[in-house]
Each structure stands twice: as structure tokens, then as C-alpha cells.
User: Fold these one by one.
Assistant:
Number 1:
Amino acid sequence: MPESAKKTTIYDLAELAGTSAGTVSAVINGNWKKRRISEKLAQRVLDLAEKHGFALNMQARALSREKSGIIGMIVPMYDNRYFSSIAQSFEARAREAGYFPIVTCTRRDPELEVAAARAMLGYQVELLVCTGATDPDRIHDLCAAAGVPTLNLDLPGGKATSIISDNFAGAFELTNRLISSCGNPNPSALFVGGRASDHNTRERINGFRESCRLHGIDVPKDNVLSCGYAAEKANVAYRSWITTNEAHPALLFVNSTISLEGLLPLIDTTANKEEKTPVVGCFDWDPFAARTRPNMIMVRQDVASMIKTLFEEIEDPSDDLRLIQIPTIIPPQTKEDLL
Amino acid sequence: MPESAKKTTIYDLAELAGTSAGTVSAVINGNWKKRRISEKLAQRVLDLAEKHGFALNMQARALSREKSGIIGMIVPMYDNRYFSSIAQSFEARAREAGYFPIVTCTRRDPELEVAAARAMLGYQVELLVCTGATDPDRIHDLCAAAGVPTLNLDLPGGKATSIISDNFAGAFELTNRLISSCGNPNPSALFVGGRASDHNTRERINGFRESCRLHGIDVPKDNVLSCGYAAEKANVAYRSWITTNEAHPALLFVNSTISLEGLLPLIDTTANKEEKTPVVGCFDWDPFAARTRPNMIMVRQDVASMIKTLFEEIEDPSDDLRLIQIPTIIPPQTKEDLL
DNA sequence: ATGGATTGCACAATCGGTTGCGCAGTGTCA
DNA sequence: TGACACTGCGCAACCGATTGTGCAATCCAT
């Protein structure tokens, strides 16, 4: 393993093996039979490559092949279980499929999303997955202009096939469970978190409302606080609600773990043992969050299925634009859920 | 914005502007003054670039400049707060510094680590940060052979500058806090999680032992269970310990949130109200985990400082190999901590 | 009007691969 | 022994940038 400060190229190898760069290239790519290179020469080249720790310059390959082997993904953030496991599964599957995955997080910042997409285009991604993008269609246009296909994950867009959770059904069932679990025929029900402008939040609100309606529970406008995702904002919105209402709601539907993070200090039963705090459901899963309250119900989005479906779509794109909804996972109902 | 299926190149732009590719290149890179291009022509080129959504082919640029602008990081996983915030901060700082960051997770799999490093070398990373790598020195060798510098983060290596938490001091102080908090002059103290083979676990064990020693607490060999990081393994190890000892320890030091995830079902006070469960400390922080028990003490690793230091080292590398230890953050002691 | 300086740009080599094409040498058969 | 096929490999153009160099045109001073 000679410590060459500079990288070994196929030309170096060619010289060492007493052959030409084209031949080395063919050998390295494993199509030396097709190009009728003798096994002896092929072996010699491979040995040299091994000995020198040779690695193909993928940039040069990408340039000449006019395809990079890179697929990109943008995600809003890494620091919650949902997006982190999306990133993790995406990478694993992409590698299996022979791609070089590049994931980057854009902190729900529309400008950063666009900048990141541009950067990825510069690095010649062959396809871009927009996860939870605030404006997937804008990114789609950008990519389309460069001839790069896109797919949407988690949040749908109007211009590319989208793979998302079945938000309505998940929210509907979660609300059913909360209602049955709170032991009150007519609880005050509150929804907190998310953006009214985004599809998922809207559908979750719809599911929440529909379940309440079927149970004869009234949900006034003020009981739906789509105040944004951030923990801070959820905290402020909830604090304001309990101040005006002078009580906690009986039933609390939280739009995501991020928002839940902001609410917990206000509803933690560990902290305020006296106060009557709500039955809490959250559209998202986290192993620790699930243990912060005696009956917290968490809906888990089926990341494995989503990624599987995503790669089916990548490897065999459907001709028409589709909206694919993946059912969520609700933990089995236990006796303890029913107070 | 004409929907050209194919990417616009500087040659296309040159033809449209009635000039040469070299000129376009100079204009795009902003050094047209240096090359004495007239402002009029420069503006014409820029307008055309804008109009066609032109993006430089970074692969081609990398090839000719012989530097890619890419810096890579490998992390063990995304799905805990520590590593996810490392990845997130790394990306943010890298972008600020004008790099294109590529992060990939290798699931603590030594082979995958090497494979990922190789792939990154293929894509011409200029520098590789090995975070929590099982064998950073092997990766260092790989990179060194290609003339690519490396830095270690979180877990130290012997061949590159390493930036890690001050594990000993953090563990020492955490143990002090646990001892003062458990209200028992001679508690049974147990350490769970991590690998005895890795530096951080060893140092944490040392800190734990040292604090116990100073408090006159005996820690038999069987009370240090470095059973691996995985939640499952911690669960099994702890379960076995409480079976043989027919009790929970009074004081439990958990090596990381990942291990904690496996232990919680066994020590959750919400679940088993009757049982006397330990005072728990964890070397790692998670906002939800912190709320799973009345007095859980979590040591937070100072990711912001670590990344800051990392980039100081990237932008102005020290000549000699260094081991930089970053102090951890322990939450202020509250009255409730003292039972 | 002439020489030198300056302006404004084009040319072409180069980076490290990929790949179509072609050529020299050997073998085979009539 | 000449035609033909087949074997084994090299040549060179190309991918899309960057950058050192050089040249024609203009300007200015003498």
C-alpha cells in the first residue's frame, strides 16, 4: 500500500501494467470479456489496482457516462424519529440499489430547500426525493428544467408522484381511540400543531373532526390550533388556550412529536401531580415520548412501507402522477387504554 | 424558463451569447473583471444563464479544478438526538463554509463504514469526518492513501485529530449527582451499556468508578455491564442483573439513550408504581427521555462546541495530532433532584 | 505616423474516465 | 497460399468545466 499522496488514476495503472487506459477502464468495470481482454492482463490490472488502493474517480465517470449514480433526498430535519428513520432507510435501500445516496436537511426553510436542490442538481443527482418539503412544486420545476425527475415523500405535491401517510384515516382512528380512552362521553377536544396550509395537517384535522362529529363531540374553531410545527409555537398556543379556557382539554391531539416536545412541560403528569391533564394522542412515534405519560397513544407512520414504495416508484416509475397513501400503524389497544 | 430536457452547459450559453466557453466560465465564476471581459458581455451571459436555469456541472468543475468542494461525514445512525444534531449542525456549518456536505450513516457496521468511506473517496471528498466510528484508524489509512485528511468526532482514533466529549469528567459529575440525589449513603450502583473496547465507554466507566470510590461506594465487577449499545442487549443484561440480585440497583448509570431505550420498560415508574426503581442517569440527552421519570439526570454532550471546534480544525488544521475534549453540559441541580 | 501599452476576448490543453472503431497478429480451411 | 474469421488490444473523441497564453484591435503619447 504505497502512500501516494495523490490519487492513482487509470493512466497510472495503465503505465504500471504496460497497457492502455481504455483497457484498464474495461477491466475495472468488469467488462473485459466483452472487450476481449485476456484474463492474464485483466488479473494483472486488478492486482495492481488492489495493491494501490485504486478507486475510480466517480466525477470523471459521471462526466463521461452522463449519469452520476447519485440520488438525492431533502428532509426538513434529522432530529426526530420519523425523519431520521426515513433518511436512514432511504440510504440503506439506495445503496442496495447501487446508488450513492445524498441526504440533506433544510430545516423547513423554503429558501434553503431551493438552495439545497440547486446544489444537488449541480452535483448531477439523477433523481431527487423531496421529503416534507414546504414547496415541492417549486423544486419540481427546478429539477424538471434540468431533466431530473422528482418524487415527493411525506408531503404531497401537485407535479410529481407523492407517497404519504394516510393522514385522514390515521387521525380518525387515533381520535376514536382517544375518545374511547378518556372515559368522558363529551370531552373537550383540542388539536395542536402543524400548518393549516399543508396537506397533512389539513387531513389530520379532518380526521380528528370527523371522529369527533361521529361521537357527537363539538369542536369549535378555537379548538384547532395549527400554529406551526415548532415546539415553541405549540407551547405558546397551548398555554394561551388553557389560560382562556381555565382548564386543560380532556382530549389532546398533537400533530407531531416536534409539537409534543413543546407541550409536555405543560401537561406532564409527573410534574403536576394534582392537575387534571388530558388524554394525549400524537400523530408520530417516539419510544421515549410514548413513555412520558401513562396513556399516551402514538400513531406510527409506516416508514418501511413508504421507503419500499418509494423505491418501487424509482425503479419502475408509473406513467401517470399518483398519490399513494400508506396506512399508519396504531398500537394494539390494551386494557389500560380504557380507564 | 425553457423546458430543455437536457442540461444547459457553458457551451450552450456561449453559443447563445455569441462568445466562447472560456468566457462564459469566467463570467459564471465572477472573475470576469480579472479576465477583462466587458461588463456588457458579462451581463448578457448572466441573463442567459438565469433565463435557462443554468447550473454549473460540479463534476466537471471538480475534475478540472482537482478539488470537489465536498466534505463527508459518516455517523453511526441518525435516530437519536446526539448524532442527528451532529449531522444537522455539520451540514449547516459546512454550507456556511462553502462546502457541499455529504453525511451517511453506517449503523455501527465496520464493513459498511469502510464501504461508505470508499464510496466517498470515489466521489472525491476533500476531507472525511469519522463520527463514532468503530475503527477510525482503518478509515484513516484508506483516506491517507488517497491523500484525503480525516478527523475523528465523538470517538477518538490514534491517527487523526479527535474531538470528543470529556467523558470522564461528565461521567464523574453525573455520578456525583446521582449519588447525592438517591438519598442513600451506600447505594448499589450499576453501569449499563456501551462497549468496553471503546474509549468513551471506558472513560465513562472510569468516571463512574472514581466518583463511587470517592463516596466510599463499592462497585464490583458485575456492576459494570458494557454489553453493547443496542437497546435489546441492555435490556437483556439489566434483566439478568436484577434477576440475580433480586432487586433493582439504587443508582443506575446508563451509557447512552440507545441503551436507555432498552432499559425503560424495566424501570419505568409509570408502569410499575409499586416497585422501588433506581435513580437514573444517562450520558446523553433526549427531551422526551428526560421526562420519562421524575428525576432522570441527563448529561448533554455539547454538540455546538464540538462542531465549532471541528470546523476550526478543518479550516486551520493543527500540525500535530490532537485529542480535544469538550466539556459536557449537566442541567442545573434543582431542589427536586434531592429527594 | 509609429511604438508601446491596454483592452477584450478566443484557443486549446487538461482533469480522469468511457466507448466506438480499427488494426495487427494468429488460426483455419479450401 | 490466400481469404476469412477471430483474438487481443490501442487510439482518439468526448463528457463539461478551468485556466495559461496569445492575438487583434484600440488608445495614447511622442
Number 2:
Amino acid sequence: MDIGKNIRIKDIAKLAGVSVGTVDRVLHNRGRVSDEALKKVTAVMDQIDYKPNLIARTLGSNKNYKIAALIPDPTGDPYWAQTNLGIIQAQAEWAQYGVIVDTYTFDIFNKDAFRGLAEEVLESAPDGIVIAPIFYHESLPAFELFQNQSIPYVLFNTNIPEAQPLGFIGQNLNQSGRVGAELINLGQHESGTFAVLHIDEDVHDSIHLLEKEKGFREYFQEHRKHKFEIVDFILNPNEPTFKNQLIELLADDTLKGIFVSTSKGTAVAASFLEKYGKKDIRLIGYDLLEENLKYLRSGIIDFLINQNPKRQALLGISHLVNHLMFKKSAPALELFPLEVITQQNVDSYLGSGIH
Amino acid sequence: MDIGKNIRIKDIAKLAGVSVGTVDRVLHNRGRVSDEALKKVTAVMDQIDYKPNLIARTLGSNKNYKIAALIPDPTGDPYWAQTNLGIIQAQAEWAQYGVIVDTYTFDIFNKDAFRGLAEEVLESAPDGIVIAPIFYHESLPAFELFQNQSIPYVLFNTNIPEAQPLGFIGQNLNQSGRVGAELINLGQHESGTFAVLHIDEDVHDSIHLLEKEKGFREYFQEHRKHKFEIVDFILNPNEPTFKNQLIELLADDTLKGIFVSTSKGTAVAASFLEKYGKKDIRLIGYDLLEENLKYLRSGIIDFLINQNPKRQALLGISHLVNHLMFKKSAPALELFPLEVITQQNVDSYLGSGIH
DNA sequence: TTTTAAAATGTGTACGCACACACTTAATTT
DNA sequence: AAATTAAGTGTGTGCGTACACATTTTAAAA
């Protein structure tokens, strides 16, 4: 291995017996180059392993990139607040590289407002967009707009197969449900009932939640050691019937475990288990939200599956910057590991700067 | 927020009414600067938020950094092979920035050879060192050598409190044992026996393994719901008595679970459980080694705690590069999350490029 | 006061790449 | 054959920082 200096364009030029300008034209195939010169340069290129100095390249173009982040309003919403933290961290991390991240938030109950927002974003002419497209139908026209203006965009949190983004960052929801099933099933030696709860103020992403339930049920079909009954509920905590529905569920003495498909719903379910002294019912939910941590530490919640909303946002922006600034491509599909959080390992996650 | 161009040294100079050279001297406090000039520059610095352009800075210094990685010989050792993979990945990742990583391997049974290696490494005059210091006593003089030559070094895998490295990358072993205890205890409703096995060809890091056991036992002292007996063994698979010791252990009908403190030992224990049809005994071990994955998928192993040797090495080198090249400091203590791996989430870990 | 040293400050260049522009040579047109 | 256009090629500059070196200013010594 030759340890010395890296090969520069200048070196290629010298080896090929042409000027740096010609090499530059060959490398980026711009301008015109004679067949003869082209041959000489490509001959050298085949011989050596030229790796452009990304630092120098970036310094030269030295643009100030503007990135737009579209997420649901994080105010009073612990899940999207985590996402927002990821955006803020990305902002701080990339600020010194001249990257500016503008966050645009929308009301998760107001689909119409979302339509207008996409246009508002475009007016600011961003160089790239990261978006958590929780509205399926309303997102499609937005993507078309982005595509027309050829603005690269990255999806996270919710995947939309019809879109053609730079990449998607999230988790395999079906497999996530299977993990939930596996954890709820562990060490259960008697038959009984498991409940799947979709607790959400809104139903916009119920499709995604149902994907988790599908995985959950599939697991038990493949591992039918004991006879388990699985019941499922789609609950809205704002409905007056909500409380009674849960109480009725808890009254079932055969209930062995509860799998909550939403992060916010997890704490709600936990509060009921605590209130009615049902500590022995295994509870599995999502995400390291403050409330959830409290119940995890007190033993009400047994497992949390970490969706890592913060890092999803952080990585989404990093992908975009790598694409824009360093012309580095990232995998189109970045599926995060399905992290299992328990009382004993939760601190190791909270302490780790990466997560 | 002012979106325009970032503030450059040139701008500070103009605002302070001095030259860029003076600003440079103030920023890096080199050379002499008059009180008056110092005051003018610091006054401007207080006003504005100057963030040096790391790209330009790096381009200028444009050195070829040489990093030495000291690890146990990965040949025929799946754990250190993972570590080696991390080094190779780091190599590829940083190659275009002019970073060269030289790997020095040593025999885990030959402490004397290790002493010589440290000197050999120093002869190559590396700019930084990453090291997995599995020999406690033999490492100390090596660190002193590094310190004397003021070569920055990063520890990973094994922490040595007496050392003064740039940072340590690893896990909290006590807490790791607690996680093992928690997982082995989950859903166990009858009293019985748990075994802690330290299966290792060598005893050099038994101190560290015992730290895991300590955490394991502490967990049960704090959560004494049922009456559990905990037995522990330090076993060498090369000893002739090894097989019988394990068979004897498995003959105990009250045995509910086994916690293996080493990654290689995990597969060994699994093979015994499989051979003697003791599938119901809960088995918890370490790391995503090929062998372990096989037993995890077949259900012999119930949980693996991921120590992520690959990423430990990768991150160790990244820390060093950030320090050398970008003058960015990293946390002195990077404790990885204690990742719980199960049959259902293992693929999400293997598929993820980050892990 | 002049000389000499020290302190303070300014100027210039390299780092590697991208891109603008000027220049040379060859091919057409007038 | 001269003038014009096009094709091909080389030169030069900026990006922001770091650092070497030249230059100016100030203080101390002769």
C-alpha cells in the first residue's frame, strides 16, 4: 500500500500529460474533450484509485444549504417533541457547515392546513426536505410538488410506498408487532387473554398501527403453544366511553397481557393498570417518553419498544446533508433496530449520546 | 436569525479593526498580542457567534493521519473478528480523509508478546492509538509510553481506571449483569436455581466477568420475590473436566436458567442444552456471533445482550479522527446501550447498517 | 540620539477542488 | 487567403483556515 500523499487531480493530470482542467472535464464529463485526451485520462484512472478529497470539494462549493423539516406540532405532544429534539440536534450539528434547518409544524387534526403548508415550504425554496408524512392521501400531492421542483426529500416515521424519496427512515412495523408478541408471551405458561390496544386521539395512522397488530397475531399463529385469545380495541381517549371500555377489559380475570401500539397510549394504559392494582398484567408499549419511563421504573410497564423518534429525525437530516453537501448516497431504506427497553437497561439508553 | 454568509475570521478582523493574523493569534492564543488588540478582538467575539469552518480548517492542515489499532488476534475468534470488522469499516470510511489504520494483533495467551507490541507500535510513530487492553497489568506501562510520547489513545472493550485515555468506549458491566438477571427472572414463578457461567479459555479478564456476576446477584438481592439459589462456575472449555462439570449442572432439576458471561461461552452452553434436550432452561448470553445466532433462532438461547464489538471499534477510531483531524472532543466515557436481542428483533439489528 | 532587540502586527501562500475564463489550435465560412 | 466559428485545452482564482515570514512599531540598550 502506498502510504504517501493521496492522489490529487493535479497528479492525474501530470500522469496523463494533460492539464487539471482537462481532467476535471473528464471526471465530471462537462465541456468537450478530445478522444485522445479522454483515453489518456481514463487510462490513468484505471491504473490508480482516485478518491476526491471531499473536504476540498465542499469548501469550494461552500453553499449555505436550507433544509425544511415538516413534522406534526410538538407542543404538548411528547412523541413529536422527541422528533423535534432530533431536528434541533441536527441543526446544531450541521450549523457550522452552513446548514440551516427550518421547521414547519402542522396540526395532526387538520389535514387541510397540511396541504397549504407544503406550498408554503416550497415558497421558501429549500434545498431539501425531511418529512413525517402521517397523512397518507394529503402527502401524495406534496411529493409531486417536490418532485416537480426536483427538491430531494427524505421520509421518516411513516413510509409511503408510492413516494420516491431519497430514502425512508423508520422501522418494520410488522416485525415490531412480533417483538411485542414475543415479549408478552415470554414465560406465560397458562392460557389466557392478550389485548391489543390502539389508543390514539386520531385515526389517521391506524393503518400503520394495524400493521403492528398483524405482526402480533402472526407471531401467535406461528407459536401456538398455549391457547391464547387475542382481543383488540381501537380507542380514543377523548371519547366518553373510553374509560369504561378499559375498565371492562381489566375486569377480565384471564387477561395476561396488554400490547399498546402507540407511545402515548402506553402511559394511558399504564395509569389504568396502576389505578386498579393490576400490576401483574404484562404491559408492553412504545417509546421512552417521560410518562412511560415513570411507569417502566415502577414496574407497571414491563417492556418498551423504542422507535427512536429523535434519531429518526436526526438521521433524516444527516442523509439529506450528505446528499446535498458531500454527494454521498445513503441507503434508500434505513430500518432501525427494534430496541427492547427494560427497567434494567433503560438508563444505558438514556445515557448514550447516540440514542 | 441572519441567514447570510457565515462569519469568517476575515469578518472578525474587519470588525475589530485588526488583521486576520492578529485574530488568528487571539483565537489560538499563540504569539503575542497587545492588550489593546486583544480587547478589540474579544469584544467582537463576545458580540458575534463565531463558528470556525471545520472544512476549511481540515483542508489546510491536510495531514495524513496514521492510527494504530491494537486488538487480540481475530483469526478463529468470532468475537474479535467482529471488532476487526469495525476497524475495517472505519478504515474504509476515513480513507478518503487521508486516515490510515494499521492493525496490530496479539495473542490472548501471550502476555509477554504484548509488551513488545506496544513498543513496535510506537516505532511506527502513529498519530493516535485505539486499544482493547485486555491485559490489565501489561497495559499500564504501554499507556505510560503513549503518554510520554503524547500520543492520544482511546480504550475500548475493557476499561482501565488508572489510564488517562482520550476516552473509553464500552458498557457498564455491572448493569449488564443486572439486565441478564432481569431477563432470566422474567415470568419465573417457582423457586429454583440459576447458574452463572464464566466460560473462557483464559482467565485474564475474569475480573470483568465477575463484575457482571456482581450485578446479576445484586439484582436478585433487590428483587427477592421468590427464593432463588445462584451458583457460579469459572470454566475452561479446554480442561478435561469441563464437560462433566456442565453435565452435572444440567442434571440439577431445579435449574431454571443459565447466564453466560462470555460471548464464546454462550454457544458452548447452548450446545450442551441442545444435546441434553434442556430447551426449557432459559439461556442468556452475549453477542451476535454466528454460532449464537443459530441457537437464538432455534430457541435454545432466549436472549443475547449485544456488546456490539464492531461498533465499539468503529467508534473508537472515529473518536480519534475527530480529535486529530477536526479537533472535536468526544465524551470521555461512551457507554453503549445494553441491547437486548431476541428471536424476533435480531434481524432488525443485523439489517441495520449502524449496528 | 542612534542602535539593537523584542514585541506586535500585517501579508502571503498552501491545502484540493470547482468553475470561470482566456487562450490555442483546427475546422468552416466568406 | 483572411475572417469567423468551434473545439479543445490550459491558467487562474476563490472557498476559510493555519501558519510561515516579512514588516512595522515599541521598548530597551548603547
